[in-house]
Amino acid sequence: MTEEHHENQDENLESKLQKIISLLQRYKLVEGFVRLQDTPEPELIESIIQKQNLANLRGALDKLHPADIARILEMIPLEDRLIVWRFVKAEHDGEVLLEVSDAVRQTLIEDMDSEELVAAAEQLDADEIADLAPDLPSDVMEDVFRALPMEEREQLRAAMSFSEDAVGALMDFDVIIVRGNVRIEVVLRYLRRLGELPDHTDQLFVVDRNEHLQGTLLLNRLLVSDPNTTVTEVMTPKTVKFLPDDKAEQATDAFERYDLITAAVVSPEGKLLGRVTVNAVIDFMREKADLEARNQVGLSEEEDLFAPVWKSVRNRWAWLAINLVTAFFASRVIGLFENSIEKLVALAALMPIVAGVGGNSGNQTITMIVRALALGQVSQGSTLKLITKEISVSIVNGIVWGGLVGVFTYAIYQNIQLGLVMSLAMLLNLLLAAFVGVLIPLTRKKLGRDPALGSSVMITAVTDSGGFFIFLGLATLFLL
Amino acid sequence: MTEEHHENQDENLESKLQKIISLLQRYKLVEGFVRLQDTPEPELIESIIQKQNLANLRGALDKLHPADIARILEMIPLEDRLIVWRFVKAEHDGEVLLEVSDAVRQTLIEDMDSEELVAAAEQLDADEIADLAPDLPSDVMEDVFRALPMEEREQLRAAMSFSEDAVGALMDFDVIIVRGNVRIEVVLRYLRRLGELPDHTDQLFVVDRNEHLQGTLLLNRLLVSDPNTTVTEVMTPKTVKFLPDDKAEQATDAFERYDLITAAVVSPEGKLLGRVTVNAVIDFMREKADLEARNQVGLSEEEDLFAPVWKSVRNRWAWLAINLVTAFFASRVIGLFENSIEKLVALAALMPIVAGVGGNSGNQTITMIVRALALGQVSQGSTLKLITKEISVSIVNGIVWGGLVGVFTYAIYQNIQLGLVMSLAMLLNLLLAAFVGVLIPLTRKKLGRDPALGSSVMITAVTDSGGFFIFLGLATLFLL
Q1: Does ipTM surpass 0.85 in this model?
Q2: How far apart, in whole angstroms, are the C-alpha atoms of residue B261 and residue B219?
Q3: Which chain A residues contact residue B401 at CB under 8 A?
């Protein structure tokens, strides 16, 4: 980040947004007015005003950090967004595209021609271009590729080869390397000659002549060391490093646990390839948290708040369809017992309680297990212990809540047997919820899947159908 | 972080855990054996083996980073945890206590006496002690407080005065300050004299004689600047800064948007109070994500995976109770229509479909809004637009899925009117879900509450009771 952007970072985003919106309104007002007049005269008073409006809007945008522009673009409806986007300084285009959400990025890219896109991409580093690549038309990517210097082409090719959740995808190439046998004084002189260090440089990487990583030299150490010692004497020899194919999740864990700012990425042979910075890690964490939240309710993509309706419908389609199937299944389970319900209609009113509380309890269990898995708190040997514990919790809950519900049921329907059946069904469905709530995420994890994906829908499907079956089955056995 | 911990950070956590567990098993085995023998003879062969076992366990633990020890303690059952905890080097106690989850921390603290606790706390900085303070007995806190030097006492008092979600709670006091009028060369000499810089120092803070913040001097700039220029010439004058009472969420946003490593915290008068580091921000983000996930299903606290059953029961209590009340309410809604169900028992089998799909769709809406609020994408003026969009999506979904469900219903029950009522009820319940799904989080946000808390339970309550009422009501009107 360069300093020009720092200018008004302490101002509130909402107030920046309001400023842009009010300038935009003024611009749109005059624009509409000019169009209404439909006059060929170019020296109209409105057009002078409009020039001023434009200059104001441009000026306000120029003063904003690209990340702020990105946020503002996400917050305004599509039509306004495209007007504002056109007035963003071309040299900020690349960074803004990097910062916006995937959904909004698409709307912006659709509005740009190939030349603009190539120009925007060329402002970025190889690893950043790789992040944009999936959204860019292939002819644009070809042009970008051809325009890059040899070394960066290699980097871009490398960066694009990693899967999205690998460390390689978080990596950048902004490393400063030094040799172990030089003196600190020489390093200091070398840095001064460079004139500028890459953002977030907290350590230099010490390599041998084969580019194998020997250790790292923290700037903090560099600054306080005797200029006459050698790099080897003050470097940290054993340092956190990753392979490009390591899971990104592993890197974020290490950054969190060991409080890192940057870490080296090396080839299996130990050759330095690049580095991961804490900011790439933060972005990944945010995206991951976002993905998890959306996955649990079955939103398949990031959704632009102002997306056209058909896009939103498509985004939510798959999951509603699955839900409909499970709901139909539950409905057929009830259908099996229509005779029983006809004889004792209270069953219809009571059955959602059994299903609902079971679902809620199952969701608590599954959430706890998913969180523990995400935080790496579940070791391979603890499955049985976890099931035992959850079952125990369910038994307690089942007895207490089941008992309470039984009493209420008796109070309402004056039917002791019905109350007992209700209590027993609650207990059994809570046990089912606990058992399945532990097993679903652990099994998915073992199969290498995301333990959170759709967990909520699955557990609810089990506790609904299971709850109806248990309750209506018991009622049919004992009451009729 | 000092280098001694770096030693084996590239080793996998699971393998570290397995090593500790196997050493622990060996220790426990012999311990059990010795107890069985019940012999007073101290020179037993077992006790020699046991000494070796102990030394091995201690040695393995000593080599681990405190953060790794913390993770391992979280992953093993209570009984083993306390054995391992006793063998952790006393000088690591403080850091381990900081790193473990709240729930596990309690189990560790319960196992320590006051002296050990005071010793552990004294290894920590004032801001870290403040993090532990809520879990420490008050007599321990008094002792710790008394043992601190004057300056740190002040810091501790300050740190403890901030609410948990304020920037002040993330702040530490490890700032290096310099004056603007000194030359870079002098700064370099000053740093060398300090001998060690605080972790994560990426910039020095430039203050005037009243300790008012003038700007910051990035180490990256410091290293490449001409030693004869003054600090003022190379410092960044306008820098991101926070007030201690700013929302922590605001700081995490800024760190993410502007890719910061550290940022200054100043008093309303502009006096430098401390700094926030990116690592405090990451920890906060993790905890926040964790809190959100738990909040949605009503787990009131972090839960130790191996907590005693009664503790887990208590943790999940409140929400199940709320859920039970809403389920009872829904049940009473059905109870209103028992006559209708008696006449047409198919209603009982169909009503959960209407409620279920409505709940699912509502959860999608609410999750999207909550995410957008968390990412700051919702501006004050967009409520109406959001409702309009969600309603439109619901109309499309309602027509498509409602139509489909109507056809299936007809296919199963051979009753056209029933199919039509089913379709209409689906549509109406989806509309209700969209409307409430937007309104709940936006209203809570406006009232200054957490928009995520319990959102899932609330929307489900509305779509269940609402769905039953709409469907059974329509059926009673048109079919009977």
Answers
A1: no
A2: 12
A3: 320-321, 324
Which residues are CB-contacts of A206 (< 8 A; sequence separation ≥ 6)? A177, A178, A179, A180, A213, A214, A215, A216, A217, A231, A232, A235
User: What element of type H or E holds B1?
Assistant: none
The strand order across the sheet containing B262-266 reads B241-242, B262-266, B272-277
Task: Decide if A285 contacts B290 (C-beta within 8 A).
Answer: no
Q: Count Cβ atoms within 10 A of the Cβ of residue B100 and give its class: 0-12 exposed, 13-18 middle, 19 or more buried.
A: buried
Report the CATH number at residue A93.
1.25.60.10
Which bin fits A208, alpha (ψ -120 to 50), beta or left (φ > 0)? beta
- Taking one residue from A and the other from B, the number of pairs with CB-CB distance under 8 angstroms is 377
pLDDT band at B38 (very low <50, low <70, confident <90, very high): low
Which residues of chain B have a CB within 8 Å of the CB of A240? 6, 9-10
Residues B182 and B157 in one domain: no
CA-based nearest residue in chain B for residue A452: B293
Q: CA torsion, points B373, B377, B383, B389, in degrees to nearest 10?
A: -110
Last residue of a domain, one of B128, B161, B194: B161
User: In terms of DSSP H, where are the helices of A206-270?
Assistant: 219-224, 231-234, 248-258
Q: Which domain holds residue B231?
A: 177-283
The verdict on A89 and A235 lying in the same domain is: no
Residue B292 domain flag: no
Q: In terms of domains, do B328 and B404 share one?
A: yes
Whether the pLDDT of residue A10 is over 60: the answer is no
Q: How many residues does chain B have?
A: 480
> Rounded distance, CA B181 to CA A273, Å?
41
Q: Between chains, do B197 and A408 touch, taking CB under 8 Å as contact?
A: no
Instruction: State the smallest CA–CA distance between residue B289 and chain A in angstroms.
Output: 7
Question: Locate tokens 């945890």: which residue?
Answer: B81
Cα B67 to Cα B94: distance, rounded to the nearest angstrom: 11
**8 Å CB contact of B364 and A328:** no
Residues A237 and A324 in one domain: no
- Chain B partners of A460 at a C-beta cutoff of 8 Å? 356
* Six-digit token string for B183: 């030359």
Domain count, chain B: 3
Q: Supply the DSSP symbol for B212.
A: B
What is the distance in angstroms between the Cα of B161 and the nearest Cα belonging to chain A? 24
Interchain pair B324, A353: CB under 8 A: yes
Distance from CA of B186 to the nearest CA of A (A): 12
Distance CA B339, CA B326 (A): 22
The alpha carbon dihedral of B153, B158, B164, B165 has a sign of: negative
Mean pLDDT over A404-421 rounds to 95
What residue of B is the nearest CA neighbor of A356? B327
Q: Are B293 and A324 a contacting pair at CB < 8 A?
A: no
Q: What are B96-145's pLDDT values in tens digits?
A: 999 998 889 999 999 999 999 999 998 899 999 998 998 999 999 999 98
CA A432 and chain centroid, separation: 32
Q: Name the residue facing A320 among B290, B345, B357 (closest C-beta).
A: B357
Which residue of B5, B9, B450, B480 is the best one to mutate when testing the A interface, meaning the one whose CB has the most A CBs within 10 A?
Answer: B9
Is a pLDDT exceeding 90 seen at residue B319?
A: no
Pairing of strands B177-178, B203-207: parallel
Instruction: Determine contact, residues B341/B472, Cβ cutoff 8 Å.
Output: yes
Q: Residue A197 is nearest to which of B220, B341, B356, comparing CB atoms?
A: B220
Could you count the other beta carbons within 10 Å of the beta carbon of residue A225?
Answer: 23
| B320-345: pLDDT as tens digits | 888 899 999 999 999 999 999 999 99
Residue among B76, B320, B363 whose CB faces A357 most closely: B320
Q: Do A223 and B335 touch (CB under 8 A)?
A: no
